[in-house]
Write a structure and sequence with these properties.
This protein is α/β, with parallel strands linked by helices. Helix content is 44%, strand content 17%. It contains 13 helices and 11 strands. The chain is globular, with a radius of gyration of 26 Å. The N terminus is likely disordered.
């Protein structure tokens, strides 16, 4: 065995001490690198912070989900989110008025109707996280990307209706006059109506829906969340159509409700888009990329939202797989098309 002379032992001790010092100094850096979110681009973050450390978010997502979501962004970036929550129609009206006035007021919009925003108002962009979402969950012109999948299904009150008695079609609904006045639908379900026409064809759709309305006499109210809560409470026995995530959300909260499948299942997306006149353009790009991230979609999934990423599971698991056993049809309406179907909805669903 080789022995060390005193000078050699001193050198060895110094080298060992240096190694420990370097290890101690590198460990936090390595930890930071390991913990850094995959969506967070350091160069973009630096540019974003130079814009003032704020991002303005216009969103339809309720505060219960939206505020904790953007707290995740704040914690990761140090950038404060100004969260403005309103309905789809209110946000569309607001951005239109602000654009006419030449105001630079918002950075990103997260709604189900970004595709209705005029193209000149929206930035064409391609965030890195877009490669991880479903290919169909995006605009061809790159002006919006899907943050969550918005499947539309009927729902029922599990105390009032037995699972084995659930209708399998609109024709089945029409066999139950005892359900008259116990079926509810939201007043803005124009995409649902357009999908029914696309599925059946115009002539048959009008015939089927006319008979359905005459027998079941559906009640039309305002608000998809109101529909979900009313069915869960037993005020109505069925929702003819509702956002699947809201039904799941109510079920997770303990309400007596569940969804069921009936062809067709309309699908559109909760979308994120960036303003072409964003007051904080780099911050807007960073925030939009965050919206598509695994972290963001995992958070939304805890509230029953359906992800647009294959690496995020639904809550409870397996919902998307089950829903896709039915006839899922994606329909995205322009502003003009929406107005046409709004008139059709009133003529068909409010006819008595």
């Amino acid at each position: 065995m080789l022995s060390q002379t005193p000078p050699m032992r001193a050198i060895a001790r110094a080298a060992f001490a240096t190694t420990l010092l370097l290890s101690a100094s590198l460990t936090p850096l390595a930890a930071q690198t390991a913990n850094k979110p995959s969506w967070l681009d350091p160069a973009l973050l630096e540019a974003a912070k130079a814009e003032g450390g704020t991002v303005v978010v216009y969103s339809t997502t309720n505060e219960e989900e939206g505020l904790p979501l953007w707290k995740l962004f704040e914690d990761a970036t140090g950038i404060k989110a100004q969260y403005v929550r309103a309905s789809d129609s209110q946000i569309l009206g607001r951005v239109t008025i602000e654009a006419r006035a030449g105001q630079k007021t918002w950075d990103i919009a997260q709604t189900a109707n970004v595709q209705k925003f005029p193209d000149p108002m929206m930035l064409a962009f391609e965030p890195p996280e877009a490669k991880n979402i479903f290919p169909e969950a995006r605009a061809e012109n790159k002006r919006w990307y899907g943050v969550y999948s918005n499947y539309n299904t009927p729902a029922y009150n599990t105390k009032m209706i037995k699972k084995e008695d659930l209708p399998k079609s609109f024709e089945d609904f029409s066999k139950h006059p005892e359900w008259a006045g116990k079926v509810v639908i939201d007043s803005t379900d124009h995409v649902w109506l357009a999908t029914v026409f696309k599925f059946y064809g115009e002539e048959k759709a009008r015939k089927v829906l006319k008979e359905f309305v005459s027998v079941v006499k559906p009640v039309v109210i305002d608000g998809h969340l109101a529909v979900a809560r009313a069915v869960g409470a037993g005020e109505y026995w069925f929702a003819l159509n509702n956002y699947l995530n809201l039904t799941v959300n109510q079920k997770l909260a303990g309400a007596s409700t569940d969804y069921f499948l009936m062809d067709p299942v309309p699908l559109f997306y909760g979308q994120v888009g960036v303003s072409a006149n964003a007051p904080h353009p780099k911050t807007a790009l960073l925030a939009a990329n965050f919206s598509l991230s695994k972290e963001a979609q995992t958070h939304l999934a805890t509230f029953g939202r359906m992800p647009t990423r294959a690496d995020v599971e639904t809550n409870p698991p397996g919902i998307v797989k089950e829903v896709n056993t039915a006839k899922v049809m994606s329909v995205l309406l322009t502003g003009e098309e929406d107005r046409v179907w709004q008139r059709e909805f009133k003529e068909i669903l409010l006819a008595r």
